[in-house]
Structure prediction request, 190 residues.
Amino acid sequence: MLLSDILMAAFAGFWFFLAAYAANPCAVLFGGGRPMDGGRTHKDGRRLLGDGKTWKGTVGGTICGIVLGLLAAGAADLAGVVELSYGTLLQVLWACFLLAFGSMCGDITGSYVKRRLGRKRGARTPILDQYDFFIGSILFLLVGYSSWFTERYWDGPGKIGLLTILILTPILHRVVNIIGHKMGKKDVPW
Ligand code: CTP
Ligand code: MG
Prediction:
């Protein structure tokens, strides 16, 4: 395998994950208002999810992820780069919905777990903070569209792409959160 093939496979891994990566920062931009748990508490006395998970954020994040995925897919097709092709319009829509909504659901599940561990909203929780959305997206793809996942993240050079997002995810998470913090959108830089 040529170095250029490896680099292309690594970039494709990132490229096909754009909808998942966009969802969380967009949830930060669009978030606010009514929390999803409606202020309810669990029997342990702590909030179910906390004020950091809102309906507006979840819907906004999901829609933004899908839109970015559509743009990326369109760009790849226009440029005629087969390695970066998301598939037909229907395939793009379904895959990006799963990536973006899975990302949101993973993040929400992460907050549920954090509250059960007694972590307050925004408290640092290594690994869970960096990978909750990642696991959500991968799981949703595996359940909802496994052929799309295997074609792009398992078969042939796909595993290079999978390894790339595995390594890139905590790095991107950190960079994006520092930017969000500097912009005054996030209380804490993680
Ligand atoms: N956000 C939202 N809805 C979501 C996810 C995020 O409104 N589904 C917004 C909230 O304003 C939130 C911010 O984005 O405060 C940052 O997201 P995140 O770091 O996931 O939430 P935290 O406030 O850190 O809360 P948690 O401890 O539950 O992670
Ligand atoms: Mg957080």
